[in-house]
# Entry
Amino acid sequence: MIRKILLITLFLVGSLFAEKINIAVAANVSYAINDLIKEFNKTNPDTKVRVTLGSSGKLTAQIKHGAPYDLFMSANMKYPDSLYKDNITITKPLVYAQGSLAILSSKPRDFSKGFNLLKEDSIKRIAVANPKTAPYGIATKQALENANIYKTLKKKFIYGESISQTVSYTVTAADIGFIAKSSLYSPKMSKYKEDINWISLDTKLYTPISQGIVILKKAKNNKEVRAFYDFILSNKAKKIFKDFGYIVND
# Structure
């Protein structure tokens, strides 16, 4: 009985001293974040990481209105740059990974045809992210312009306002679509197979999307936040990002 009480007491004391950090994370990182936290906790077992997922724009607006986040992992550099300029961060924005594009079809396709596949009459609707609202849309437009087929295909486009909406359109309303490669690592997407349903888009055709990380002022003296920040920029984290379809600098 005494032993049981002692164990309960130790557990309560351990919980009391466990540090919690609150991080805001771009939705496209949702598939990788659990593995990242699991790896981080191997060396920081007492740090509890609380994650809020959302679009980078909405998370940035929350931060500017005083949301209690300690760290922000954005889908691009635009938003952390904005926070840095507004003196809301204690670190300059750094790139933790780069997002890349894939072409996806819910039906098997002959991808050996290259971009000629997109010109075929059987491809009536192509889902793309809106370049006015989504960084992946800008990258898609850049790739198609560099391939000299943007104007030819434009009449087939249906636009998603975000990359997540574009993924949804790709598998429901369109015949094919340009999506974030990281989206393919969702359990729901595992049924789609490389070279049958999807292929990676050649990064020579577009600039991969640099995703930025910053520590926010609220966490100025928080060692646990700094430890997580350092981990995200470490080689261990880079390996995980790479496993989830991101491009990382070795």
Remarks:
- The chain has two domains: 2-98+209-243, 101-205.
- The longest strand covers residues 19-26.
- The domain at 2-98+209-243 is CATH 3.40.190.10 (D-Maltodextrin-Binding Protein; domain 2).
